[in-house]
Design goal:
heterotrimer, A mainly alpha, B alpha/beta, C mainly alpha, B: alpha/beta, Alpha-Beta Plaits, 2 domains, 6-stranded mixed sheet
Chain lengths: ~260, ~300, ~270
C-alpha cells in the first residue's frame, strides 16, 4: 500500500513539474469550452430538449467534458509502448514490481493533479459566463466516485492498446484507431445523448461511455437510486475487464519478450 | 556467484523482403565460464557479438535455448523477481531514473520498490552522496542534469538496495576524463570494500585497463578469451611499435625485422618484435634520426588482433 | 525573399524522401489521419441529427464550411508544421543551431515539420467538398470559382499567421508548447462553424482581432449566395486575400520581435 502511495505521489509530481504546460492546457481547454458551448446552444435555438438534456445540461456537459479531458487522459498515451519499444521494459521487469500495478498507481496520482489544476479553472470560467446545472450533494459524491472509476477504465484501455507494442514495432496505427473509437464513443466529441438511437446503442455496448458520458450524467443527476448504482457498477465492470485483458496481454507479451528477445 | 555452462541462445529471424524465410541465428553458442564472488571483470566484444544477449540471460530477461546458468545460486529466468532483489543493473545509454522528477525522488521510490529499510537506505545514500558528490544536484530534475551527474545518479540508483552483483553496461560512455576517473575510482572502492561482484560491459579500453584484472571476450557468439589482462598482453601484445621522426621525409624504410605500418611526412611507424635496441641501431644507420618513441600496444589493438585471428 | 523559400524547399524535400521510404506506414499514417479528422465530420452529422439548422445554415452549408476549413487547415499543417515542437527546441537548445545558420529562422522552423500524413485530413475535406458541391445548388460563375480557388491560399496564410503569433508566446514560457494547440486546433474548430452561432464578443473577435472568420465564413457567404445573417458589409466577403497580407505582416513582425528578445535574453 505504501508503495502504491509513493508511486501515486510520483505520478502527481511528474505533471506538476511542468506548470506552464498545465497553464497552457487550461487556456486551450477554456477556448474549446466556449466554442463547443456555442455550437450546442445553437441546436437549442430550435428545440428545448435533446433526449433528456436541456440547454443548461448541454452547456454543463461541455464544461465538464473540458474539465475531465486531462483527468481521464482522453488523448493518446504511449509511455508504456515507448518503453517496450526501446527495451526499458526489461529494466522494469527486472524490478520486483508489477508493471500494471505501477502504471495504475501512477495514473491515480496523476488524475487528481489534472482534475484540480486543469479541470477546475476552465469550469469556473464556464460557470461565470454560462448558466450551468449543479448536482445535489449525493450526486456530487457519486460524481467523484464515477470520475475515479472513469480514470481506471481509461488507464485499463490505454494499458491494453499500449501492450500491442509487444507485437508491433509501431503502435501508431493501433493508437489512432483506439483514439478514434474512444474519443467518439466516450462522448468527448459530442454527448452521446445527441447520437441517433442506433449509434447510441452501439456506444452503450462499448466501454468508452464509462470514461466520460457516465460521470457527466451522474453530475447532471440523470441517474437515481438503483440506476445510479447500476452505472457505477458498469464502470467497475469495464475497469475490471480492461485491466484483466491488459494483464493477459502483459503476461503473453512478457513471455514473448523473454523467449524471443525484443 | 555466476556459473554458466554451455549456454546458448538462438533467435528465429525472418529475413528477406518478400518470402520472409525463417533463419535461425546463433546469438550465443555454448559459452561457459565462472565468476567468483568479489571479482571485477570486463566483458568485451564487438557489437552484435552476443554481449547483451548473455547479460539478458544472466538477469533473467531472456530464456536460454540451451545450457545451464546460475546466478547467486538461482536460475535467473525462473526466479527473476527474487534475483532482481540481489542484483543491480545500469545501462549507460538507457535511463532508469524518472526523467521529470528530482533525483532524490527516484531514489526514494526505488527504496520503496525494493523495500529497503529506512535506516539502511539513509546510510547507503549518505555513503553515495559522499563518494559520488551528489549533494549539489540531489534535488535537481533528472532532465536538467549533465551526463556526468546523471551517470552518478544512475550508479547510485542501481546500488541503493545493496546488491551483491552489479551489471554495468557502458557506464562511462560520453563522460569527460575527470568524470570517468571518478566513476572508476568508485567502482574499485565498492568492489574492494563491499565485495560487490561487478561485470562490466564496455567499449572503453581505459575502463578495462584501470579496472579489470580479468577479461571475457566474446565474438560471434563464442567466448574467445577468458583470462587475465596481462596474459592477454603477453599472448597478443608481443609486437610493439617504434615511431621514428626523421630529418626529412623518405620512402618507407627497409629494415630487417620490422615492418613499416604507416608513414606521415618525416614520421614512420615500424612494427617489430623483440628488443628495441638492435632495431634502433639499424634504423639510425639507414636514415638521419631526429627523435624516436616506443609504443606499447594498447588493449584496443590487442583485442582487434584477437578478433582478427581466425579460429581463436 | 526567394532564398528562404529555397531553404524551405530543401528541408521539405528531405523529409518527403525519408517518409516515402516507409511506404506501408506512410499509407497507414495517412489513413489514420483521415480517420481521426473524419471524427470531426461525424460530430457535425450528429449535430444535424438533432436540428435542421445551425444558425441560418443547413447541414450541407455547414459541411461546406467544414470541408474548406479542413482542406485549408490540412494544407497549412502540411506546409507550415505545427510549431508545437518549437518550445521543446528552445528548451533543449536546438533553436540556437537555427540562429547560427545564415538563414531565416522562421523558414527553418516552418520547414522542419513536414508530415505527409496530414494530407489525410485534406483528402477527407476534399471528399466532403465534392459531395457538397454536387448536392448544393450553388450559382457558379467566374467570380465564385475564383473565390473558391483564392480562398484556400488566403486561408493558409491567415492560419499560418495566427499560429506564428501564437507560438511566439512560447518564447516567454518554458513548457508552453500546448499554447499553440489553442491556436492551431482551436483555430480550425472556430473556422469550421458559422460565426453567427457565437455570441457577439466572440464574433467581433473572430472578425477583427484573430480574423478566422475570413478563412471560411465570409468567402462562403459569397459563394453560397447567402445574405449575411449579421448584416455586415458585402466588402468583407472579398477581403480574405487582404486579411492574409495583413497576417503576413503581423506574423513576421511578431516572429522577429520574439527572436530578438530571445537573443538578447541569452536564450
Amino acid at each position: 500500500m505504501r508503495l502504491d502511495w509513493e508511486i501515486a505521489k510520483r505520478g502527481w509530481r511528474r505533471y506538476a513539474a511542468y506548470p506552464w504546460a498545465t497553464a497552457a492546457g487550461v487556456f486551450t481547454n477554456t477556448v474549446f469550452g466556449f466554442i463547443q458551448a456555442y455550437i450546442l446552444l445553437a441546436v437549442f435555438h430550435h428545440r428545448r430538449h435533446v433526449g433528456d438534456y436541456d440547454a443548461a445540461d448541454s452547456v454543463t456537459y461541455v464544461w465538464l467534458a473540458q474539465a475531465l479531458i486531462m483527468t481521464v487522459y482522453a488523448f493518446g498515451w504511449q509511455e508504456l509502448a515507448l518503453r517496450i519499444r526501446d527495451g526499458s521494459i526489461a529494466t522494469d521487469l527486472a524490478r520486483p514490481l508489477d508493471p500494471q500495478r505501477y502504471w495504475l498507481a501512477f495514473d491515480l496520482g496523476r488524475a487528481p493533479y489534472h482534475f484540480i489544476f486543469r479541470g477546475v479553472l476552465p469550469f469556473v470560467v464556464g460557470a461565470l459566463v454560462f448558466r450551468l446545472n449543479y448536482p445535489s450533494p449525493g450526486d456530487a459524491a457519486a460524481f467523484v466516485a464515477s470520475v475515479s472509476l472513469a480514470v481506471v477504465v481509461s488507464l485499463g484501455f490505454r494499458f491494453l492498446y499500449n501492450s500491442s507494442a509487444f507485437w508491433l514495432i509501431d503502435i501508431r496505427g493501433v493508437m489512432i484507431v483506439a483514439l478514434s473509437l474512444s474519443l467518439f464513443f466516450s462522448g468527448m466529441v459530442m454527448p452521446l445523448t445527441f447520437f441517433p438511437s442506433w449509434l447510441a446503442d452501439i456506444a452503450h455496448v462499448l466501454p468508452f461511455a464509462s470514461i466520460m458520458q457516465v460521470p457527466i450524467d451522474v453530475w447532471l443527476g440523470k441517474h437515481h437510486g438503483l440506476g445510479l448504482l447500476g452505472v457505477l457498477a458498469l464502470q467497475l465492470w469495464w475497469a475490471l475487464v480492461l485491466l484483466g485483458l491488459g494483464r493477459l496481454a502483459l503476461s503473453r507479451g512478457t513471455r514473448k519478450l523473454v523467449i524471443q528477445g525484443g | 556467484m555466476i556459473e554458466v555452462e554451455r549456454l546458448s541462445k538462438q533467435f528465429v529471424v525472418r529475413r528477406g523482403r518478400f518470402r520472409r524465410e525463417r533463419v535461425v541465428v546463433d546469438a550465443v553458442n555454448e559459452i561457459s565460464f565462472r565468476v567468483e564472488r568479489g571479482e571485477l571483470l570486463g566483458y568485451l566484444g564487438p557489437n552484435g557479438a552476443g554481449k547483451s544477449t548473455t547479460i539478458k540471460m544472466l538477469t533473467g530477461i531472456l530464456v536460454p535455448s540451451g545450457g545451464r546458468v546460475s546466478v547467486a545460486g538461482l536460475d535467473p529466468s525462473k526466479r527473476r523477481i527474487e534475483l532482481a532483489k540481489r542484483i543491480g543493473a545500469m545501462f549507460g545509454q538507457r535511463i532508469q531514473l524518472w526523467w521529470d522528477l528530482p533525483l532524490i525522488d527516484s531514489f526514494e521510490l526505488l527504496r520503496h520498490i525494493y523495500k529497503v529499510p529506512a535506516d539502511r537506505y539513509r546510510q547507503s545514500l549518505a555513503r553515495f552522496r559522499e563518494v559520488l558528490d551528489l549533494d549539489s544536484f540531489l534535488h535537481t530534475p533528472v532532465r536538467q542534469l549533465s551526463l556526468g551527474q546523471r551517470i552518478r545518479g544512475e550508479l547510485t540508483a542501481s546500488m541503493l538496495h545493496e546488491p551483491e552483483l552489479l551489471f554495468l553496461d557502458e557506464p562511462t560512455i560520453g563522460l569527460d576524463v575527470v568524470a570517468k576517473q571518478r566513476v572508476r575510482d568508485f567502482l574499485i572502492e565498492i568492489n574492494r570494500e563491499r565485495g560487490v561482484t561487478v561485470l562490466l560491459t564496455t567499449h572503453d579500453l581505459g575502463d578495462i585497463e584501470r579496472l579489470c584484472k580479468r577479461l571475457l571476450v566474446i565474438d560471434h557468439g563464442s567466448l574467445i578469451w577468458d583470462g587475465g589482462i596481462d596474459e592477454l598482453k603477453e599472448r597478443y601484445g608481443a609486437e610493439r611499435m617504434l615511431i621514428v621522426d626523421l630529418e626529412q621525409p623518405v620512402p618507407p624504410l627497409q629494415i630487417e625485422g620490422a615492418v613499416v605500418e604507416k608513414v606521415d611526412g618525416p614520421r614512420q611507424w615500424l612494427r617489430f618484435r623483440g628488443p628495441a635496441a638492435d632495431l634502433t641501431a639499424r634504423v639510425a644507420s639507414s636514415a638521419r634520426l631526429v627523435d624516436l618513441q616506443i609504443a606499447e600496444p594498447d588493449i584496443e589493438e590487442i583485442v582487434r588482433r584477437i578478433y582478427s585471428v581466425p579460429g581463436t | 525573399m526567394v532564398e528562404p523559400v529555397l531553404v524551405w524547399r530543401r528541408l521539405v524535400g528531405a523529409q518527403i524522401r525519408s517518409q516515402f521510404q516507409y511506404r506501408v506506414s506512410f499509407v497507414l499514417d495517412m489513413l489514420g489521419n483521415f480517420l481521426i479528422s473524419f471524427i470531426d465530420f461525424l460530430a457535425v452529422l450528429v449535430l444535424f441529427h438533432n436540428t435542421t439548422r445551425l444558425g441560418v445554415w443547413s447541414v450541407r452549408e455547414v459541411a461546406f464550411l467544414y470541408a474548406m476549413s479542413s482542406i485549408s487547415f490540412a494544407l497549412t499543417d502540411l506546409l507550415v508544421g505545427h510549431f508545437d515542437q518549437f518550445p521543446q527546441k528552445i528548451r533543449d537548445g536546438t533553436f540556437d543551431i537555427l540562429l547560427v545558420r545564415p538563414r531565416s529562422t522562421l523558414f527553418q522552423v516552418i520547414g522542419s515539420d513536414f508530415q505527409m500524413r496530414r494530407l489525410g485530413k485534406a483528402i477527407q475535406g476534399a471528399l466532403v467538398l465534392g459531395y457538397v458541391i454536387s448536392s448544393l445548388a450553388i450559382p457558379w460563375d467566374v467570380g465564385r470559382v475564383a473565390m473558391l480557388v483564392v480562398m484556400v491560399p488566403s486561408a493558409i496564410v491567415i492560419f499560418a499567421s495566427v499560429w506564428t503569433v501564437g507560438s511566439c508566446l512560447a518564447f516567454w514560457t518554458t513548457d508552453g508548447g500546448e499554447f499553440t494547440n489553442a491556436f492551431t486546433y482551436g483555430g480550425n474548430f472556430l473556422a469550421q462553424y458559422p460565426i453567427d452561432i457565437f455570441s457577439t464578443w466572440l464574433r467581433r473577435f473572430l472578425a477583427y482581432i484573430v480574423p478566422l472568420a475570413f478563412v471560411c465564413y465570409f468567402p462562403a457567404l459569397y459563394i453560397l449566395d447567402k445574405p449575411d445573417p449579421l448584416g455586415l458589409p458585402r466588402l468583407l466577403q472579398f477581403s480574405s486575400p487582404l486579411v492574409a497580407l495583413l497576417g503576413v505582416g503581423v506574423g513576421g513582425l511578431a516572429w522577429r520581435f520574439a527572436v530578438r528578445h530571445y537573443r538578447s535574453a541569452g536564450g
